[in-house]
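PROTOCOL LOG
Step 1. Enter all chains and additional molecules of the complex.
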Amino acid sequence: MKQLEEIKGLGPKTRVALEKLGIKTSDDLLYYYPFRYEILKKSNLEKLKQDDKVVVDGNVESIPSVFHINGRLDKMNFRFMSGGKLLQVVIFNRAFLKSKIPIGTTITVIGKYDYKHNMIVANDIHLGALPNTEKIEPVYHSYGGVGGKQIRSYLFQLFSEGIDVVDYIPEGLSLKYQFMDKTRSLKQIHFPTNKNSLKAALLRAKYEELFLFMLKMNYLKREKQHTNGLKRDISFAFVEKFIKSLPFSLTDDQMICAKAIYQDLNDSKRMNRLVQGDVGSGKTIVSFIAMYMNYLSGYQSALMVPTEILAHQHYKKLTEIFEPYYIRIAVLTGKTKIREKREIYEGLKNGTISIVVGTHALISEAVEYQNLGLVITDEQHRFGVNQRSNLRNKGITPDILYMSATPIPRTYALTIYGDMDVSNIHTMPSGRLPVITSLKKNSEIRDVLESMYQELKNGHQVYVIAPLIEESEKIDLENVTLLEEKMKKAFGKFYQIGVLHGKMSSKEKEEVMKNFEQNEVQILISTTVVEVGVDVPNATMMVIFDSERFGLSALHQLRGRVGRSNLQSYCVLISDFEKERLSILTETTDGFKISEEDFKLRGSGDLFGVRQSGDMQFQIADIKKDFSILVKAKEDSEAYILSGKIEENSILRAYVQGTKVLS
Ligand code: ADP
Ligand code: MG
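Step 2. Run joint prediction.
Step 3. Record the structure below.
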């Protein structure tokens, strides 16, 4: 492996740009795969029409002339003879090629055919003729002026100097599948010679990635099965009493879940369970029951959530539910004041705090637990496998519980969550009415305001989700402000309007949420910060602007903020686009089905979202398209671990035990 500095011709500016793409070493560069391929086939000029794409080879017929348009832009012209036809070629920003293409040079020109002017407006020029067969061109994501061409020139240099990469696929499996050798496969991926070799190369790379992923999963699973959990002897009678004390009776599925957790906890094996349940199905209370059981056996519990708002909301509910038990409960987030933080650290270390809820702050270096027995992560599709190990704990291996609103269809989930037991909450608490969802155009805003007014008049509350512009928090803010003005104009006289967005301090957010919860604010305008977990049952309507910008699952999650009581709730999706896709939401409220559709439409890449951290970011494999490879990789990795061969393979052992994800 080389550092970028060691690559010839790669200057500091390019280095910075490459680093922004996550490329820090020669290995990163080798694993910086093209995101698609373009197939170049020699065009027949006779058959092309105006503005058709053109790929032809021929000879340079005049000395290229270069014009500098302004400081940054240049334009090059030359005559070009292809198949007995003389044409002009124009290309921008390739003046540096001038000296390489003197008269008579054979080149391939790729661009757009301007029939009227007998010209090709080229976007690329390659030295040399086109092979008679088609040529496959990799296309890379580029950034800050570093384009695919440049990336490939560095790659070309690396390959010509000879690369040295680790092949993670065990020999036996390479033989079994007759995989292409790794170096050759990488070269094919970046410099494909033909379709078949490229296909074989991609197959090998995908298999390697998925094999490693599954190997790690299975290894962790086996490790968990072999590490002893905590010894507990909880009496179910106490648990039952606690459940009876709740403000509602559990649904059957919640009860089944609670019992499964009870058994896990009492078992000497370590618990590693995922509770999947559609949004609003009542997962939170199940986690509280688990914490109560853990408390009965004398251990501390930590509940980790993705947002501050959710942390505070859970904290409030926890203090309500546990009020009769005199349990010390704390909330800890990145924004907790230093003094308070110190007290919480102290309480966790000396064991006086039994339950702590919070964000990532819970696993920061500074936090030490006296006897952490249960870790729950809520509403995170999946925290990274490695994050858990950060919990500093006095030699105890805590039980683990995940709560998820089912982002992945079952077949995929079974494979990918292969390392854990899964419980499902299918039934909604009784009396729930499905949210009525409708699609409206921006021009129909009056109708929307009218329906909002109806709900408000009945004493209910409304969420308004502001347009989302991911790239810029500043613009987000402007959108929220604009919307606030609109809403004030329509409702300001009679109703209170609150605003919630990412730029607010946690105290401000808390204040607004509190006002909304207590119905002092009736209309809450928000960016997607309310997406996860927020629970205000009196809110019966949600209006979502620019709906087309969201994935179906995200919209479903948002919509899950309403319909949380026996009141009929409504969701209005405002959009002038993508009617067909969005209408899926008007037809079903089944989260499983919706995520299935989302999956079909967007593939796994987007499903996990750009901001989703964790282990699901594959470089080259796509768990949907490459599902059959995934299944093979799963079987092979299981067999590999079972055979004990992994103990002899130091590279793979280091990989599964380490924290490094394939670079
Ligand atoms: P989610 O599964 O989306 O996290 P929550 O746990 O927030 O859902 O529950 C949604 C709402 O349903 C909450 O207001 C909660 O108090 C209520 N709830 C949960 N279980 C029941 C039940 N068995 N009967 C009635 N209401 C319930
Ligand atoms: Mg929840």
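Step 4. Note key features.
The chain has 20 helices and 23 strands.
The radius of gyration is 30 Å.
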